[in-house]
Amino acid sequence: MALAEILKRTCKKLGENNKPTYVVMAIATVKGICRPTFTMMDKTENPETKKYTALREGLTEVIAIPAYWACGELAGGLAKKAFKDKALAGRAEKNLMFMGVCIAALFVIPGLCSVAIKPIMDKIGLKAPDEKEKPSKKTITPTVNPYLTIPANQVIQRDKFPQVHTFTARPQIGMKVGGL
């Protein structure tokens, strides 16, 4: 019965002091540990791809945890300033914290990740596997089609170019129905 009592007190305490920010931060922490671990355990994927993906997922959660905390606490702080009644302020604080966490997930974290992750990955020396295969822009040389080249001594007059007309078998008026 002692274990049941401890569990009951723990659940009661967590239920009284549960803030949305803490819940989301706990989820982000677990994701930051488990997702890179599971990515590295994938036997079918290329080792370079696994390393890049695992590090990127881990960095995303490292960025997400403080962003969740900051946005949740800032939004919750607005409730304390806006509402003087303690009972109303407590409920408003948790609701605004939840909204702050949602804003962090929708806007703040993707923005921070798009700004921070690529430079961090470049500093570490990891590039996306598809970026490694692409030739750099410096090595691309334009190809010359010998059929389209014009001899240097030939002068081209604008009027001499053939006029291109498109031919259609039916009139092009009215609405098109059924993709025809």
Structure description:
The longest helix is centred in the middle third of the chain and has 39 residues, at 86-124. The chain is mainly α and 180 residues long. It has helices at residues 2-16, 20-40, 47-82, 86-124, 129-133. It contains five helices and no strands. α2 packs antiparallel against α3 and α3 packs antiparallel against α4 (86-124). The radius of gyration is 30 Å and the shape is elongated. It has a domain at 10-134.
Concise overview:
The protein is an all-alpha fold. It has helices at residues 2-16, 20-40, 47-82, 86-124, 129-133.
Largest sheet: none
Task: Return Rg in Å.
Answer: 30 Å
Large-scale geometry: elongated
Strand content: under 5%
Question: What's the oligomerization state?
Answer: single chain
Query: Structural class of the helix and strand makeup?
Result: mainly alpha
Low-confidence stretches: none
* Helix content estimate: 55-70%
Give the total of beta strands: 0
